[in-house]
């Protein structure tokens, strides 16, 4: 049984009193007094001891236990063990949380970086494709340029065709004037024909007159005969010229036929081709519009991606802050553990105990008062430039 | 020539986020895991900007800044503090130590890029 | 195929074409145009396409020649009453830039 402080006082007083009585009353009364007083005092002490125990509450709160010179009862051993067990488990769990978060976040951050870069690259590629910068041919031509080239080529073709026809029609006119000249020649030939006829007639008449003149007219008759021959030759030349002219006319007609082919190009075919070009052009314009819309949607997507990336980068920094907060909790746990140990060792360190305990308590309070992480949410922090 | 940035932080995720943000914008980034490592890297190389955390094992951020400012090469280099600490007291300590700016975590990547661009281009 | 009809009203001389305007018409076209070209009263020559279904290139050639001659005589020229197909052909040949088309 442990004797409390005040119990010792009572015992001391009791013994003093008895000693005084013995001295005053002599040896006989002293022996009687002692044999009566001792059991009396002992039983008083026993009774008071148990009464006191029933009244005083058990001391669990260590702060009350540390308060000055209060006579507090010790905490029951199993409660202390429970607390210490919980604290060491908490420390283990804190450490595990740290490891888990670190591990998971590292993987998360890596995959996030990868995803983000891939997405950006894909958007870039899509934009290039839409703009037609990527193609099979390294000198990729845009559709509208191609169609324009064709339209120009067609325009040149039509121009040349029409010009050719114009020249052809001029040619035809030349052919016609040749024909007309030929007509003039034919008329002249007709004139010649009638002249040769008349000449023939005259020569005939001359021969008849010569025959009537007899011998005197014989020379004249010869001349008349020659004239008739000449006339005949002129006639046959004239006929040959007429034949030649007919052949020229024939050639001219042939030429006109050929020019007809040259000049008469079908315009309908060209018309249809132009129609098809126009259709293609307008379809290309529609395509270009769709392309422009796609590009603007892609750009919007790039903007959205950027915003999402910003949010993610900010949020992934949680690991650092959570880590620091958990470390701080760990520090608190160590603090608790230390104070618990100090409390349970108090019996061995009696006098100095309070001074050292208060000093250590003050130190712990200071070091734990500064929480490095004041943030309660993940909004971006302030920026100060000095 | 791309600008070179040194980021000093004991948290791997912070270093990774800083590297990701700055590298995407064309900066070259080197990482260090604590104050001493950061000082060593700074001396071994030449950086246009330094970003550092405050709470690190060994040499903390404020001491790193003071050490860097003593080096001739980093007398005027922009040095930014990137930390969870947000108290005015800490900020004035940072200013006194020679920090160019004080950024509180978590950082928004666009804002970080704006500040870096303003300081180094 | 009918010959083109020539009408003169004041300063305007009209050449009314009937049927297909192609190579085979060249002589008659030439004669009719000549009539208008040589008429001093005529200041504007109109070619009426109301009865013409379509043109081929020879027609275009003939029109170009007529234009040349009209211009040299300080007479103006216009093409009137053109049907859709005829208009389209004239457009492809860029005649809308050279002629007044009504």
From TrEMBL, chain A:
GO BP annotation list: signal transduction
Membrane spanning residue stretches: 12-30
GO CC, any one term: membrane
SUPFAM superfamilies xrefs: Methyl-accepting chemotaxis protein (MCP) signaling domain (SSF58104)
PROSITE patterns reported for this sequence: CHEMOTAXIS_TRANSDUC_2 (PS50111)
Domain Methyl-accepting transducer positions: 172-265
Protein name, UniProt field: Methyl-accepting chemotaxis protein
Automatic annotation (TrEMBL), chain B:
Originating species: Aquitalea palustris
Keywords: Phosphoprotein
Occurrences of domain Response regulatory (ranges): 4-120
BP terms from Gene Ontology: phosphorelay signal transduction system
PROSITE patterns in UniProt: RESPONSE_REGULATORY
Coiled-coil intervals: none
Protein name: Response regulator
4-aspartylphosphate PTM sites in chain numbering: 53
Gene3D superfamilies xref list: 3.40.50.2300
SUPFAM superfamilies: CheY-like
A Pfam family recorded for this sequence: Response_reg
CDD domains: REC_CheY4-like (cd17562)
UniProtKB/TrEMBL annotation, chain C:
Entries under Gene3D superfamilies matching the protein: STAS domain
Pfam families membership: STAS (PF01740)
Region forming the signal peptide: none
Classification via CDD domains: STAS_anti-anti-sigma_factors
GO MF, one annotated term: anti-sigma factor antagonist activity
InterPro entries: STAS_dom, STAS_dom_sf
Record domain STAS: where: 2-102
Alphabetized PANTHER family for the sequence: ANTI-SIGMA FACTOR ANTAGONIST TM_1081-RELATED-RELATED (PTHR33495), STAS DOMAIN-CONTAINING PROTEIN (PTHR33495:SF15)
Protein name: Anti-anti-sigma factor
Record organism: Aquitalea magnusonii
């Amino acid at each position: 049984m442990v004797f409390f402080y005040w119990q010792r006082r009572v015992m001391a007083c009791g013994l003093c009193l008895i000693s005084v009585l013995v001295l005053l009353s002599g040896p006989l009364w002293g022996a009687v007094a002692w044999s009566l007083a001792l059991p009396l005092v002992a039983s008083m002490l026993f009774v008071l001891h148990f009464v006191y125990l029933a009244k005083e509450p058990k001391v669990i709160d260590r702060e009350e236990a540390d308060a000055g010179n209060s006579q507090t009862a010790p905490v029951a051993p199993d409660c202390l063990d429970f607390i210490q067990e919980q604290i060491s488990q908490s420390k283990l769990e804190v450490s595990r949380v740290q490891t888990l978060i670190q591990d998971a976040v590292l993987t998360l951050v890596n995959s996030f970086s990868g995803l983000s870069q891939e997405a950006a690259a894909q958007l870039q590629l899509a934009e290039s494709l839409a703009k037609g910068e990527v193609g099979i041919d390294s000198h990729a031509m845009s559709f509208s340029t191609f169609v324009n080239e064709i339209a120009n080529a067609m325009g040149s073709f039509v121009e040349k065709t029409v010009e050719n026809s114009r020249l052809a029609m001029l040619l035809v006119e030349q052919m016609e004037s040749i024909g007309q000249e030929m007509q003039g020649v034919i008329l002249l030939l007709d004139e010649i024909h009638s002249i040769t006829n008349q000449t023939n007639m005259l020569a005939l008449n001359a021969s008849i007159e010569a025959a009537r003149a007899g011998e005197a007219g014989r020379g004249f008759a010869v001349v008349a005969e020659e004239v008739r021959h000449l006339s005949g030759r002129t006639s046959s030349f004239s006929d040959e010229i007429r034949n030649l002219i007919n052949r020229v006319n024939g050639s001219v007609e042939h030429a006109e036929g050929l020019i007809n082919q040259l000049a008469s190009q079908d315009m309908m075919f060209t018309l249809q081709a132009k129609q098809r070009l126009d259709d293609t052009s307008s379809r290309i314009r529609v395509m270009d519009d769709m392309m422009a819309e796609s590009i603007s949607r892609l750009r919007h997507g790039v903007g959205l991606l950027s915003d999402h990336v910003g949010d993610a980068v900010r949020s992934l920094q949680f690991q650092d802050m959570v880590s620091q907060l958990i470390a701080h909790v760990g520090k608190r746990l160590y603090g608790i553990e230390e104070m618990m140990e100090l409390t349970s060792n108090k019996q061995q360190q009696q006098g100095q105990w309070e001074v050292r305990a208060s000093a250590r308590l003050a130190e712990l309070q200071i070091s734990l008062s500064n929480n490095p992480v004041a943030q309660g949410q993940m909004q971006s922090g302030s920026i100060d430039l000095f | 020539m791309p600008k070179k940035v040194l980021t000093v932080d004991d948290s791997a995720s912070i270093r990774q986020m800083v590297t990701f943000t700055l590298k995407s914008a064309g900066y070259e980034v080197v990482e260090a895991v604590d104050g001493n490592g950061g000082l060593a890297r700074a001396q071994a190389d030449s950086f246009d900007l330094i970003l550092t955390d405050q709470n690190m094992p060994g040499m903390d951020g404020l001491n790193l800044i003071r050490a860097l400012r003593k080096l001739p090469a980093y007398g005027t280099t922009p040095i930014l503090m990137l930390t969870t600490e947000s108290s005015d007291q800490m900020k004035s300590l940072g200013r006194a130590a020679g920090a160019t700016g004080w950024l509180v975590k978590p950082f928004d990547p666009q804002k970080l890029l704006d500040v870096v661009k303003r300081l180094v281009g | 195929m009918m010959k083109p009809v020539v009408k003169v009203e004041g300063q305007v001389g009209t050449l009314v074409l009937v049927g297909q305007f192609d190579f085979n018409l060249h002589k008659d076209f030439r004669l009719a145009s000549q009539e208008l070209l040589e008429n001093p009263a005529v200041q504007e020559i109109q070619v009426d396409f109301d009865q013409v279904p379509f043109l081929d290139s020879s027609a275009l050639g003939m029109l170009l020649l007529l234009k040349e001659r009209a211009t040299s005589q300080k007479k103006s020229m216009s093409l009137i009453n053109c049907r859709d197909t005829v208009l389209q052909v004239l457009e492809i040949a860029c005649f809308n830039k050279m002629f007044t088309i009504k």
